[in-house]
Design brief:
heterodimer; A: alpha+beta; Rieske Iron-sulfur Protein; 8-stranded antiparallel sheet; 32% strand; B: alpha+beta; 2 helices
């Protein structure tokens, strides 16, 4: 049978994946891991980058391939503030200029390679990607995270996972309330999105799922509140509070990625937890590690879906779905020239979801699961 | 990628609602009494006299105006 629109059969549409990579700040991970005195190769934006820390401590990001004869700078050596090519020892500075060719009287004109503007902040390294080559506008700066540099908070617990899918899939999660129940075994009870400028926010409240977690002897988890904002195309800060019987646990979750190429990306999570009376000393660090494991499990649940799903530009939505189309309209601003960003892409849009029906349906489902578990026929 | 309109707008489009306090006009759609979509424009953003300092909040005056428009039948509620 051939499915066409005229049969009343809805056809999935998907244009080609964009050839360019999103304009914006991208986090490459914790800055510390690049400070071991060696250059690091990072596959990103369809190519290969070299990340190196000069003697001055600055982290630099260049295209990995030497403009002389194509040597791989990530296999080279750091000499002073420069990266030396392993092929002929040409020295490249963090500004992308060739500073020295030890066997030559002078450096040729036009000896310049691609350098990415970098930002080191709150323990993380960021690069600014812009296909047009413009510098990062100050209004798109990544906001500071006060807990990241405070002794009252733990250090980052960080994870990195290569995902073989286009990175639009992870961004779609911002608006996808129902998948939190079906894929992640959480229970959203409140859900709202706000898109404005280069930010996209998801506000979510949820309750614990007694059918998905084994009862623990410790304090009972009641639910969570989360305010998660994408600053640009790839870096999300989630202020995430877990509500327990008698106390709250405050954490900041980073959910970020950078594209390797059009069909793969590196998905990262970072979490810090606030030390408190309920979580003194090491307990907070233990909690941060447990939460990180939990987030990683969540990523794996997503990846299982992304691996086999179809890319779809025309999703069929019910009224209890979030604003997928408006999110994609917002996301499009990062894939067009800065001059072609339209007011529609950045204008404020608010969407509050009616969770009445989902909550009713999910309460019934949780009860059915609990009854099945009690009867010894454990579906989870 | 082409920017596509929300498929749900085929069932009911967004309608203009004027804020009773500032007079700014925004586009609104209510799929139910509890669901609200609000599309701001550049003029409506600059015209709002008292935008909430918390950018995650919806302007309470605007919400009230939307509620009133829905209650008076000026704004259709899809599943009302």
């Amino acid at each position: 049978m051939t499915a066409t629109e005229s049969d009343g059969v809805r056809v999935i549409e998907a244009e080609a994946i964009p050839t360019r990579y999103a304009r914006g700040w991208h986090c490459l991970g914790l800055a510390e891991r690049f400070r071991d005195g060696r250059p690091h190769a990072v596959r990103a934006f369809g190519g290969k980058l070299v990340v190196f820390a000069g003697e001055d401590g600055r982290l630099n990001v260049l295209d990995a391939y030497c403009r002389h004869m194509g040597g791989d700078l990530s296999e080279g050596t750091i000499k002073g503030n420069e990266i030396a090519c392993p092929f002929h020892d040409w020295r490249w500075g963090g500004d992308g200029r060739c500073k020295k060719i030890p066997y030559s009287r002078r450096v040729p004109l036009r000896a310049r390679t691609a350098a990415w503007p970098t930002l080191e902040q709150d323990g993380m390294l960021f690069v600014w990607n812009d296909p047009e080559g413009n510098p990062p506008p100050p209004e798109q700066a990544i906001p500071r995270i006060p807990g990241a540099t405070s002794d009252r908070w733990t250090d980052w617990v960080w994870t990195e996972t290569v995902v073989n899918a286009n990175c639009r899939e992870v961004v779609d999660n911002v608006v996808d309330m129902a998948h939190f129940f079906y894929v992640h075994y959480s229970f959203p009870t409140y859900f709202k999105n706000i898109f404005e400028g280069h930010t996209a926010t998801q506000i979510m409240k949820g309750r614990a799922r007694p059918d998905a977690r084994r009862p623990s002897r410790g304090p009972q988890l009641l639910g969570n509140s989360s305010v998660a904002t994408y600053y640009g195309p790839s870096f999300m800060i989630d202020e995430l509070t877990y509500h327990y019987e008698g106390f709250d646990i405050n954490s900041v979750l980073i959910n970020c990625h950078y594209p390797i190429d059009r069909n793969s990306f590196v998905l990262q999570s970072g979490i810090i937890t606030e030390r408190s009376e309920a979580l003194p000393g090491d307990e907070a660090d233990k909690m941060a590690r447990r939460l990180s494991d939990f987030i990683q499990l969540g990523f794996e649940q997503d990846i299982k879906i992304w691996k086999t799903k179809a890319r779809i530009d025309n999703p069929l939505l019910c009224e209890e779905d979030g604003p997928v189309y408006q999110l994609r309209r917002w996301y499009e601003q990062f894939y067009v020239d800065a001059a072609d960003v339209t007011p529609e892409m950045t204008a404020r849009f608010e969407f509050e979801l009616d969770t009445t029906r989902p909550v009713e349906a999910w309460e019934r489902e949780v009860e059915r699961n609990l009854a099945a578990q009690a009867a010894g026929d454990d579906p989870a | 990628m082409t920017v596509r309109p929300d498929v749900r707008l085929e069932d009911m489009p967004m309608r203009p609602v004027r804020c009773r306090r500032c007079g700014v006009e925004v586009l609104v759609r209510k799929a139910s009494w509890e669901q609200t979509s609000i599309q701001w424009s550049t003029p409506s953003m600059t015209g709002c006299a008292e935008p909430p300092p918390d950018r995650h909040r919806t302007c309470p005056s605007l919400l009230e105006s939307i509620g009133l428009a829905a209650a008076q039948g000026d704004l259709e509620v899809l599943d009302g």
